[in-house]
Amino acid sequence: MNIVIMGCGRVGARVAAIFDSEGHKVTVLDIEPYSFRRLPANFNGTAMVGNGIDVDVLRRAGIEQADAFAAVTQGDNRNVMAAQIAKHIFNVPKVVCRIYDPLREELYHTLGLETISPTNVGAQLVKDAIEKA
User: Fold this and answer.
1) E-strand spans in 79-129?
2) How many CB atoms lie within 10 A of CB 79?
3) How distant, in Å, are the alpha carbons of 13, 50, 51, 89, 98 from that of 6?
């Protein structure tokens, strides 16, 4: 599988490392070159400096051949914009977008975006841990 990941924070770097270790083709985009230090030393993918809401940068990252795109920066707005570009302009088959604000998540679903809210996921895990017998 050919995967483009926007954001090389802890989550983006971890996702990139997992897919890379499984033999997938991975390209990671970040606007800050220092972020790539989070990638493991044995990372075989591509680390590219660039903004994932710029269609030219996405093209250079190989978005036109991508099977999947993940937007996992710290910014909900950038994630949503990049996810919409990947889905609606480049027709990437699988697009996932991280959204911190759970109030926005429903709106983004109406735009046809698959979202993951760490706020909701974390809250549910805490609730489950408290209720565990």
Assistant:
1) 94-98, 114-116
2) 26
3) 10, 9, 8, 16, 10
Helix (H) or strand (E) holding 84: helix 76-84
Name the phi and psi angles at 59, rounded to 5. -60, -45
pLDDT tens for the 133 residues of the chain, in order: 999 999 999 999 999 999 999 999 999 999 999 999 999 999 999 999 999 999 999 999 999 999 999 999 999 999 999 999 999 999 999 999 999 988 888 888 888 889 999 999 999 999 999 998 6
Task: Please state, in angstroms and rounded to a whole number, the distance separating the CA atoms of residues 106 and 124.
Answer: 17
What pTM value is reported for the model?
0.93
The rounded distance, in Å, linking the Cα atoms of 98 and 113 is: 10
Per-domain residue ranges of the chain: 2-131
User: Which backbone phi and psi does 132 adopt, to 5 degrees?
Assistant: -60, 130
The CATH superfamily holding the domain 2-131 is NAD(P)-binding Rossmann-like Domain (3.40.50.720)
In the block, which residue shows the tokens 């954001």? 7
